[in-house]
Amino acid sequence: MTNSAKPDPRFRFRILLGHSIAVGPGKADLLASIAETGSISAAGRSMGMSYKKAWYLIDTMNKCFKGPLVETSKGGKAHGGATLTPLGEEVLARYRAIEAKAYAAVTDELAAFNDMIVETPSRD
Amino acid sequence: MTNSAKPDPRFRFRILLGHSIAVGPGKADLLASIAETGSISAAGRSMGMSYKKAWYLIDTMNKCFKGPLVETSKGGKAHGGATLTPLGEEVLARYRAIEAKAYAAVTDELAAFNDMIVETPSRD
């Protein structure tokens, strides 16, 4: 705990489908990183996860949505390039829009919350 | 996974303060259950947690906010009655308002998401 601890409000938005998480904060960040790096392994690495773990998350998304969100190229080397499909781009854009709209909708409530919270919680 | 799996969008809203969670879904439910049952042990039991765990969550909240959210009565028997303070009632009400406003703000986006998701994800 630092002395500069300030209230940090965070929304975590997930869409569950049965026992699967169709999309949530981690999967949205992974989509964004794939769009940025053009590579599943680079995207996974930037998030501290293995290629296998990154691929598992992508595979879950691809099964939960009506089409794949990520496409891999059939390049020569293993773990070749990857891009978002148009559906993948739409899912990511709508996820970010949901986050932004949720925060915007509660600005006043968050200010009221901040007034009720101490700057730094006391410790035993 | 049942055949009737339908997309289930969920917001989880937390306010972090340093390393502590000042309030989140579990703590909000605990406050609501204390208001309903008038007892920390009964509230904890209804959520499948021990008295010790319930008290730990309350203690964290009491330290993160500018005053206690829960007050215990000095009754004769151990684990006596508990009530929300006015501040506790306000925190719970504002937490529920934040959830409700966040959902209301993204109704259109959620409908669009539902259209992109399959009814039941395919399995390997």
The succession of helices and strands of chain A, N to C, reads EEHHHEEHH
Stated plainly, the CATH topology of chain A is called: Arc Repressor Mutant, subunit A
* Shape designation of chain A: elongated
How many domains, in number, for the residues of chain A? 1
CATH level-1 class of chain A: Mainly Alpha
Poorly predicted spans of chain A:
none
CATH architecture of chain A: Orthogonal Bundle
**Radius of gyration of chain A, CA atoms, in whole angstroms:** 18 Å
Describe this structure in words.
The structure is a homodimer of 124-residue chains. Chain A contains five helices and four strands. Chain A is of the alpha+beta class and 124 residues long. Chain A has one domain: Arc Repressor Mutant, subunit A. The first copy, chain A, has a two-stranded antiparallel ribbon with strand order 1-2. Chain A has a two-stranded antiparallel ribbon with strand order 3-4. In chain A, strand 1 and strand 2 form a beta hairpin. In chain A, helix 1 crosses helix 4. Chain A is elongated and about 55 Å long. Strand 1 of chain A pairs antiparallel with strand 1 of chain B.
